[in-house]
């Protein structure tokens, strides 16, 4: 037994079919016209802020950029994910709190080095050990023991 779903109802795009023999040569959903107008105004605003003057070629390139951006945006939206849900998701993704990673390095500072206000005093001469081969201590793997006399 085969169960039919209602997916075919949603596959129909809301596009303007127009009168017979007078339809557009392209197939675009209604929402794409609204997105395209908003993107075109945004692209023209960015062009002016960048110092690009208003001319035929700047407007033509703005139209090309608008078509590409509108196709990208409209490829992400459908009946299950409408434009409002995608724009709210995008806004929340941009404003979500992020974990601040620890610094990976940078300038070295001496901010954490403790400095004493007084100089250390030198040791007294009597507190030193006598110099000799047997009196010297040798550290081997963390264990201190008397150094062995040199063999000849």
From TrEMBL:
The chain crosses the membrane at residues 30-46, 52-74. Keywords: Membrane, Transmembrane, Transmembrane helix. It comes from Longimycelium tulufanense. Residues 115-152 are annotated as: Disordered. This is Uncharacterized protein. Residues 120-131 have a biased composition (Basic residues). It comes from the Bacteria.
């Amino acid at each position: 037994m085969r169960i039919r779903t209602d997916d075919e109802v949603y596959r129909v795009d809301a596009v303007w079919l127009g009168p017979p023999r007078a339809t557009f040569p392209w197939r675009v959903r209604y929402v794409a016209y609204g997105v395209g107008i908003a993107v075109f105004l945004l692209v023209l605003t960015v062009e002016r802020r960048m110092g690009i003057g208003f001319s035929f070629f700047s407007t033509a390139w703005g139209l090309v950029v608008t078509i590409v951006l509108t196709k990208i945006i409209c490829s992400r939206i459908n009946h299950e994910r409408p434009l409002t849900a995608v724009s709210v998701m995008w806004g929340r993704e941009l404003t979500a709190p992020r974990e601040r990673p620890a610094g990976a390095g940078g300038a070295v500072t001496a901010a954490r080095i403790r400095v004493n206000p007084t100089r250390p005093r030198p040791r007294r001469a009597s507190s030193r050990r006598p110099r000799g081969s047997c009196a010297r201590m040798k550290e081997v793997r963390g264990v201190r023991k008397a150094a062995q006399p040199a063999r000849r």
